[in-house]
Amino acid sequence: MNPWEGLLYGLSIALTPEHLLAALVGALLGTIMGLIPGVGPVSGAAILLPLTYVFDPLTGMIVIAGMFYGIMYGGSTTSILLNIPGDAPSVVSAFEGYPLARSGRAGPALGITAIASFIGGTGSVIVLSMVAAPVAEVAVLFGSAEYFALTLGGLIILARIMGGSITAGLLPLAFGLLLGVLGEDAISGDARFTFGVREASQGVSIVALAVGMFGLTEILRLIIQKQSTPYVGSLRWRQLIPTKTDMKNSAGSWFRGSGIGFGLGLLPGPSISLSTLLSYRLESMVGRDRKNFGKGAVSGLAGPESANNAAATSSMIPLLALGLPFSATLAVMLVAMQVHGIQPGPQLVTTNPDLFWGLIASLLIGNVMLLLLNVNLIRVWVAVLRVPNWILLPAVVAICWAGVYTYRLSWFDLVVAAALAVIGFFMLRYNFQLVPVLLGTLIGPLVERHFRQGLTAANGDLTYFISQPIAAVIWIAVLLIVVGLPLLRWWLGRRSRANPDPTASQQHPSV
């Protein structure tokens, strides 16, 4: 059957009462888990894994999938309201969402987030149903050289375009790379930079990094600078609806973010986190309200949120078409499939079309449920801001500690989170960026692994990494971006100086 026929067939399966209830339960549980810093999609999927043993395979998969993209939205809610990211992908949501909340626009910020999540997830599902087979054929061609080019090249590009001074970006990036290599070597098993601490062999938990450096840092800043969390009174329904200007500024960002998220979701590694970072940086350059970045630009919130859910959905393609889980959450889904004797791969669509198309269709239904669910619960989430600081902040810290500890049941993670909170506070105080730390920790181990695997495959021949056709194309693209962007900025700056805007002095008299 063609993709449209397959999607209609999947809808006929997913629209049964049992599967509709499974999608609703998954979306609701995911949203609630996302509100708890430290839980994240991996822990959530692991908690729900036993459900797959009770239900039939498709029902269990629908619950876990609903949780997966539901938690993407829930994690963003705490980022927007309290500047406390639930997990790594929701870090970017705080950049513009939190300033919006502090200015009294928490309701519209959450409304834009809900719409962005719906557009990114729904659009990605539709494209997913059409390109799963062709993408699988291309992905088979990728080896260590290609993945090394993607990871290292992507790291170079992101570090180059993050903005700010070179020092403000490169030093935190180097710190992140050091954090990424701490722990047990994945290949040799040797302990690196653990200094005899046995618990450090597990490495730095990404939950401890996200919660400590981006969440506890904010709480520390609020306490030391004696600032308060944003106060929002009782909101009426019309106050939750984004304005026409908000919708206009967000429209292009939703679709740009969806495209970025869908593309990166096909790749191994922390694709969801990278898609939000790349989308945010793109919007800072082309967004309609880019002049307000850092002060509450809705395009800087809409783009990453749509990229977030689009990447979460498109990451299903490698799992279903190749049997390759490119994230820990998808690995849990793979385990659930294997428990029921189902082996995902190129033949899944023919051997088990009910599960393949039913799961894809359930993603479409789940996104609709997620939109309706969270739009109606916005006032509940915003009510959190009316809790006094002396109650709210200790409660948030306790939840953060609980989330960090329960992720791996390690006291070492608590120490790391506390240390990173202090380091993050001083980095912000001296105008260093925090995002490159996250980038280095996430991508560094992937670069090392693909490099070592490539050296083994090529018997130590370094030319292997540039002699492969696809890898060579990737490196050429990286070179063009790294060299071309500064040249383009220089040319545009020279052109603007040659042709100054006569109204600039009226619009910006202080310049």
Number of strands: 2
Shape: globular
DSSP strand content: under 5%
- Determine the number of helices (DSSP H or I, runs of at least 4 residues): 24
- Report the sheet with the most strands, covering strand number, pairing sense and barrel closure: 2 strands, antiparallel
Helix-residue proportion? over 70%
Mean pLDDT: 77
- Please trace the helix and strand order, writing H or E for each element: HHHHHHHHHEEHHHHHHHHHHHHHHH
- Whole-number radius of gyration? 23 Å
Q: Give me the secondary-structure category.
A: mainly alpha
Major sheet: order of its strands?
Answer: 1-2
Low-confidence stretches: 501-511
Tell me the span between the first and last alpha carbons.
62 Å
Protein name: Tricarboxylic transport membrane protein
Pfam family, one: TctA
InterPro entries: DUF112_TM
Transmembrane segments: 109-131, 138-159, 165-183, 204-224, 260-280, 319-343, 355-375, 387-405, 411-428, 435-452, 464-488
